[in-house]
Amino acid sequence: MSAVLHKAAVGCMALILIVLCNTAKAQPVRANVVASGLEHPWGLAILPDGQFLVTERPGRMRLIDTDGRLAQPLNGLPAVAASGQGGLLDVIVDRDFARNRTLFFCFSEPGPGGNSTALASARLSSDKKSLESVNVIFSQKPKIASTAHFGCRIVQGQADDLLFMTLGERYVRKDDAQTLDNHHGKIIRIHKDGRIPSDNPFVRQVGALPEIWSFGHRNPQGLTSAPDGSLWEHEHGPQGGDEINLIHGGRNYGWPTVTYGENYGGGKIGEGLSTKAGMEPPRHFWVPSIAPSGMAFLTSERYGKAWVGNLFLGSLKFGYLNRIELSTPFSGKVVREHKLLADLGERIRDVRQGPDGLLYVLTDSARGKLIRLQPD
User: Fold this and answer.
1) Contact criterion met (CB below 8 Å) for 43 and 59
2) Consecutive H or E run containing 12
3) Integer Cα distance of 325 and 335 in angstroms
4) Distance CA 4, CA 9 (A)
């Protein structure tokens, strides 16, 4: 092997650690801007009729028509602690939305002691101008004075009346992620009315909060369910060590005891461990961090059969949509990554598959966009 080829091969291996180099092959998609002028959009849900429901972090939720027209913000939202990373965050529509008009959203909720991540249910009014019957069905405990690491992605479980939601460890309380007497650094599982499922893993454990499904998380801003019902999550590491995890009830995902990252500015975290018995290793990790946000599996063939079963997530730090190939569709190991939309130079905040089988993304800026990935 020539010296040049050897240097390129070594550089490739160093960049991606345990998987393969990002392919430079052109991707068969183009960016079609559906709407613009959104202020730091965070969460995207798509209604059965093709309209878009978008949250803006400063505390607004609005509909976008199929032709890209932005409606006025919906009335009826609760008070939102919109500061730092906090604000109005994720939103999903119930699988039975066409009948019940129900949606769920999470936000940073102000209250005694500071703020925390809360989950609310509501109904979209028949004229689509306001939220009705707004009810906070979960509120993270304890509330603290912090403007960071809210987590806040929502997934409706395979059982239609179950919801999962990610919760950050609030940055200043990272050690809380390893204890079960609080909601910091956890994924919770509740019924749609806020009741606690009787088969949650810690429901009978003295001193543990019964909503907890898994723990040892840092700042999870990606959560999605595969067609087989498995739950996939990603979370921000510190300086390096962003992770993709396959989530199982009752398991410990390690933060801050184990991590592939380091303290900001350098230096090990804790004992500097990346693995430890009894703690789940990630399916994939990045060093350096890409700052992932949003997460979706593609189930349609709109982009060709090769993309079916790929995992898509945004990079806030480097401004691209990551198409991830797995060794087995919807499961398996990460075998290859592809950078999409990198030429836009936009922070990608969320990604969803629409009823039309196409992918839609939100870009995070003061004039954020809703973009459709159009097959070329």
Assistant:
1) no
2) helix 3-16
3) 6
4) 9
Long-range contacts of 304-309 (CB under 8 A, 24+ apart): 304/28, 304/375
Q: Tell me the two tokens of residue 102.
A: 């129900």
Report the alpha-carbon distance of residue 188 to residue 147 in Å, rounded: 21
Q: What strands lie across the sheet with 131-139, from one edge to the other?
A: 88-93, 102-111, 114-124, 131-139
Given a cut of 70, whether residue 364 has pLDDT beyond it is yes
Helix (H, G, I), strand (E, B) or coil at 114: strand
Q: What is the pLDDT, as a whole number, of residue 159? A: 83
Quote the CA–CA distance of 277 and 257 in Å, as a whole number.
Answer: 11
- Report CA-CA distances (Å) from 29 to 302, 322, 360: 10, 13, 12
Cis, bond preceding 292 (omega within 30 deg of 0) = no
Please state, in angstroms and rounded to a whole number, the distance separating the CA atoms of residues 213 and 186.
Answer: 7
Q: How far is CA 295 from the centre of its chain?
A: 5
SS3 15: helix
**Mean residue pLDDT across the chain:** 93
- Tell me the pLDDT tens digit for each residue of 46-75: 999 999 999 999 999 999 999 999 999 999
Give the whole-angstrom CA distance, residue 162 versus residue 192.
Answer: 6
Order of strands, sheet of 151-156, starting from the edge strand that comes earlier in the sequence: 151-156, 162-167, 186-191, 212-215
- Residues pairing with 120 in the sheet: 105, 136
Half-sphere exposure of 185 (CA within 13 A, CB side): 26
DSSP 8-state assignment for residue 70: B
SS (H, E, C) 170-190: CCCCHHHHHCCCCCCCEEEEE
The superfamily CATH assigns to domain 20-375 is: TolB, C-terminal domain (2.120.10.30)
Q: Which residue matches tokens 């609310």?
A: 120
pLDDT digits (tens, 9 = 90+) for 99-134: 999 999 999 999 999 999 999 999 999 999 999 999
List the domain boundaries for the chain: 20-375
- CA dist list (Å): 190 to 83, 158, 281: 27, 13, 25
Q: Which amino acid makes up residue 314? A: G
Which of 191, 238, 274, 193 lies closest to 17 in space, CA to CA? 274
Cα distance between residue 274 and residue 287, in whole Å: 13
Nearest to 320 by CA among 106, 23, 8: 23
Query: Which residues carry out catalysis?
Result: 149
